[in-house]
Q: What sequence folds into this?
């Protein structure tokens, strides 16, 4: 039910903040997004979202939720040139088979997606966006039990700190969120933090795209394995471009010079990306990004938390980017927020953090499970058995489209990992392995393959 009296403030106008504002607008009389950057009018990179210069996959579950809150979003993006189609997914020595049931995936750059979502949020009558504005801290009531607003500093000459009041403050300030420190300033404990180190380096470069590149397919996704911990996302985008993002774990980072970039691609487990970039026209220099560790703040474990405050998106959990889960998990959390607000205000933080944790759990277990496997961490026997099965699963997915589709549904956050252990799937995995290793390389004019990003 909409609380006519109250304002909700969102810290951060990136994907989680925009999605949160869309939902809050249904439940609050007024919603104000406070964003540090001066936001561009059109699709453009900006300082507060440096990830915009790298490959961004929008998983099927994320697109479904965004479409629910912004009907016609996919169509608008297609009209802006974002291609809709199929991709190829390489893992464990070969490409996955394509399922005829696979729906097409939307391939769009991060700045273009963010700009369209921002345009739609700005058009909501009770949402206001204040950009060029730093949130400095939280304001609490006299008892110190409820957050009642924020202290802000607008980024223009002569500005001084001011207070903005709100019935609810939602921190969508990203991985570097200050809420843990602000909680301690208010006398509350900060949440425990789980870190799973990956020491990952990214390098990304744009190339010109011709319609018949990759026989019309729109993605090559190369997943890292313990044998080769290099990964790649080569994704078609609006503007007839490819973005090629190379990534390496544990200090094995792609160089930024032309020869080094190509040499890194040459050591990927399939030569396809190397062969493509060796003859393609680059449209930009490579740019880098370093990502130290998966990070999860366990707000759901806190016994005491102030009313009037929530946290969402990367500020709760940020994942190794190569799995493409951040925006979709933020969308799941925002959906959880919508459901919690529909049930009223009683114990909102406790209810929300529990529900958000459930939404995060699947993506976290997939990412951290694989990253620990890549790190070669000693595993208990049941996990070793599971990893053995996943190895067999990857082989089977090269031959059997139903097995590949089952993996795709998990990777797109539509199905839980346990669905890979359904008796019918286990049987098909074993049968496909008895038939041999399956094809290892995508051939020309051969049916192409599904991607995790559908
Ligand atoms: C290299 C890389 C690649 C990625 N690839 C993918 C992908 O393929 N698919 C996918 O789904 N996800 C991907 N992600 C993750 C995805 O970008 C994020 O999960 C998504 O943007 C949601 O993050 P967020 O909105 O919570 O935080 P962010 O995107 O980090 O945004 C935080 C915002 O808050 C603002 N802000 C912060 N503090 C303040 C303050 N005090 N006052 C005012 N404003 C503030 C910042 O300026 C920024 O705009 C990737 C991330 C990285 C780093």
A:
């Amino acid at each position: 039910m909409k609380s006519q009296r109250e304002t909700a403030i969102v810290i951060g106008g990136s994907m989680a903040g925009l999605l949160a504002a869309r939902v809050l607008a249904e439940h609050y009389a007024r919603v104000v997004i406070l964003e540090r950057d001066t936001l561009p009018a059109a699709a453009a990179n900006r300082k507060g979202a440096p990830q915009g210069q790298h490959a961004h996959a929008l998983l099927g579950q994320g697109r479904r939720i965004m479409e629910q809150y912004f009907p016609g979003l996919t169509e608008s993006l297609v009209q802006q040139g974002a291609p809709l189609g199929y991709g190829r997914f390489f893992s464990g020595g070969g490409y996955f088979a394509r399922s005829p049931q696979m729906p097409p995936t939307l391939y769009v750059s991060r700045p273009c997606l963010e700009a369209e979502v921002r345009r739609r949020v700005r058009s909501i009558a009770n949402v206001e966006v204040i950009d060029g504005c730093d949130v400095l801290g939280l304001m609490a009531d006299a008892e110190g039990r409820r957050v009642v607003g924020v202290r802000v500093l607008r980024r223009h000459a002569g500005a001084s700190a001011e207070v903005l009041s709100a019935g609810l403050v939602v921190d969508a300030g990203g991985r570097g969120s200050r809420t843990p420190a602000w909680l301690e300033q208010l006398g509350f404990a900060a949440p425990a933090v789980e870190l799973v180190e990956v020491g990952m380096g990214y390098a990304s470069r744009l190339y010109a795209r011709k319609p018949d590149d990759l026989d019309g397919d729109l993605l090559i996704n190369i997943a890292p394995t313990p044998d080769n911990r290099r990964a790649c996302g080569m994704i078609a985008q609006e503007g007839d471009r490819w973005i090629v993002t190379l990534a390496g774990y544990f200090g094995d980072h792609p160089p930024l010079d032309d020869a080094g970039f190509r040499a890194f691609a040459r050591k990927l487990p399939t030569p396809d990306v190397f062969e493509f970039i060796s003859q393609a026209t680059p449209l930009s220099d490579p740019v880098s990004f370093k990502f130290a560790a998966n990070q999860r703040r366990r707000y759901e474990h806190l016994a005491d938390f102030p009313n009037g405050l929530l946290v969402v998106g990367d500020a709760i959990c940020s994942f190794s980017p190569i799995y493409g889960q951040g925006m979709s998990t933020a969308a799941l959390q925002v959906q959880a927020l919508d459901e919690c607000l529909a049930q009223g205000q009683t114990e909102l933080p406790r209810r929300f953090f529990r529900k958000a944790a459930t939404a995060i759990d699947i993506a976290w277990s997939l990412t951290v499970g694989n990253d620990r496997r890549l790190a070669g961490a000693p595993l208990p026997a049941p996990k070793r058995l599971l990893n053995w099965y996943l190895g067999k699963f990857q082989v089977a997915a090269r031959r059997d489209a139903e097995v590949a589709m089952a993996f795709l549904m998990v990777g797109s956050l539509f199905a839980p990992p346990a669905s890979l252990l359904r008796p019918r799937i286990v049987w098909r995995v074993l049968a496909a392995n008895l038939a041999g290793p399956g094809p290892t390389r995508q051939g020309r004019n051969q049916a192409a393959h599904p991607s995790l990003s559908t």
